[in-house]
Amino acid sequence: MSGKTPTPSLKHLAKEADTLKKKLDKLQKECATVFNNPSASNRQDKLKRFYQDCVDMRNDMTDLNNRITKMTKADEPTKMSNFDSKKDDEVKRLTKMLDQVKEMEKKLEPDETEEDYYSDDQEYARKIKEELNSEEDGVDEDEEYEEEGEEEGEEEYTDEEGSYEEEDSEYEEEEVEEECEEEENGEDDSDIKVEPEYELLYDFVAQKKGDLEVKAGEIVILRSVRDDSWWVCENQNGETGLVPSNFLKPHVKYSDLMTEDDPQTPISPRTGKELWGSIKKALSETSATDVLHAFGAVPPGFRLPTSARLHSLNEKHTLLNYGAVKLSNSNLFYKDLFYNPATSKVRPRTARIQKVVTLLEAKNIPLPGEKVVVHSRLARLSLFDGSKFLSNIVTTLAHVTDKEGRNWRFLVKPTTLESSECFVRIAEPSNQIGILIELSVVFSKEGDPEKVSELSCGWAFKPMFEENGTLILNKEYDLMVNGGTPFEKDVEVDPSIARRTSSRFMSLLSRNKQPTLVIKTNAANNEQKERFDVLPSVVVGKVPYLHSMALYRHYLACVLLRDRDNLQSTEPVFEPFLAHFPQLLEMPDLTDLLLVCR
């Protein structure tokens, strides 16, 4: 058996804070030098590298601060009489350092426009297409194109070197010595061939022979472009296969700085309408939204729905996954299901967040346009922390309350699809977690009603914690609806209605025209709380089938714990109802029938 990893002492964590402090001081001096010298060579590249260093340092400080905050005196391996005071001092010091890093990050954040900021990426995408076409046709590249490719390769190589941070002086000396040896051997950065790299937005499971199975966040090399939107890519292991083109995005390192970096997160780069239109046109990729945007049929802030795609892509964000019982690390017991023989019931497990969230109405949602026929309007609710989805996704149907179709109303009904009364439960949430609601319309093109698609009208986010760390109050909230995807920032649903105006009066008029979503949060009543306590650690659902989910968990405990002679037996349990009940909850019609027969 492997030994348990020793818990680091407070003194050890304080040394980590000292190291971060030294790096912060060094970075502040370097930033001041470049800021005070507008004519410095490669000034823009250095500022981008400093911005990357600030983001990485902020993540490290946040992680260290959380570790120190969660640490208790019982976790301290050595005896320390003044543990609480020293812990508070370290937390205050890290908080002050975090404020300094955030201030630097604001100063270093690029202030150029979207089109200018990504203009290099558009040119890069155009050259990728030309290079791939020339390789397929067997045509030799001319000397002028080779010179452009060499210059681009040199810029890419330089950017990669600048994105890494040296941690100690010995490493810096070794790197300088290696660079000197390369110069003496006559090596040149321009000889490095730039290969088109793309990042996966979502997990893709191979469905047939020839497909390449990849994970979200994985970097692949584009080998060839096909007209059927299936591209030939190569992963880091040298395996080659087909990947859907809409699962890929150009791998641009600095664009990832717009949000917190997470290799497992499908983070989309900050883009605008003109940017994505140019890139997709250059790569000969045409989607439904591109056509609709080109005809002016939808507002610029509309996108393909992120929640719907994740929900239909695999079982990760469904009740089949989050409603299933979870095994412990040893795989010998269940970590979220316990049976109490004294009461003959499931042992209740409390959670920090157990709230009822009711969707009330959506106001001033822009119309898709004259060329689009809307069949239904939906809202999808889930838990989100700003970088990834943390729960299953629940769908609610909305109704139109005006002739124009700009105002939506959600109803509290006993049926599961139309009911807007939902619940959220999470046992150990982070301070960044919140409720994400994505609004979308199911539509078809005019004259072609058989081809039905879905389009996102925007999204709203409500954090579950206030700035002081307390849970939000139980009341109504008017949330601003943002355009784009939940991974994009500062995208408006309809830019023709400006949020920022020069006068206060015009600002009030503009605010009344902005798309908003009204929700209400409530605490669970005694009956609901009793059922909440037997649910999984993380789950989102509809209040009408809360009772059915509680019965399902009780039946699970009876079959898996109470009625088994040997709990360590690996013999399969034949229970079709338990196996298929979570799938039943994803089918509103059958769930409504179950509620009627209850």
Task: Outline the fold blueprint.
Elements: H1 10-35, H2 43-70, H3 83-108, H4 114-117, H5 119-137, H6 143-162, H7 169-184, E1 197-200, E2 219-224, E3 230-234, E4 240-244, E5 248-250, H8 273-282, H9 288-294, H10 306-313, H11 319-322, E6 339-340, E7 345-346, E8 353-363, E9 372-384, E10 394-400, E11 408-409, E12 421-426, E13 434-445, E14 452-463, E15 476-480, H12 504-513, E16 516-523, H13 526-532, E17 538-542, H14 546-562, H15 576-585, H16 588-597
Helix pairs in contact: 1-2, 1-3, 2-3, 5-8
Task: Spell out the key features of this protein.
ten-stranded antiparallel β-sheet; single chain; five-stranded antiparallel β-sheet; 598 residues; 16 helices; alpha+beta; globular
The gyration radius over C-alpha positions equals: 27 Å
Tell me the helix content.
25-40%
Strand content: 15-25%
> Uncertain segments of ≥5 residues (pLDDT<50)?
111-125, 138-177, 182-193, 254-276, 278-286
Largest sheet: 10 strands, antiparallel
Which term fits the overall shape? globular
* CA distance, first residue to last residue: 50 Å
* Helix count, DSSP H or I runs of 4 or more residues: 16
- The structural class is alpha+beta
Oligomer: single chain
Secondary structure tally: strands: 17
**What is the residue-mean pLDDT, rounded to a whole number?**
75
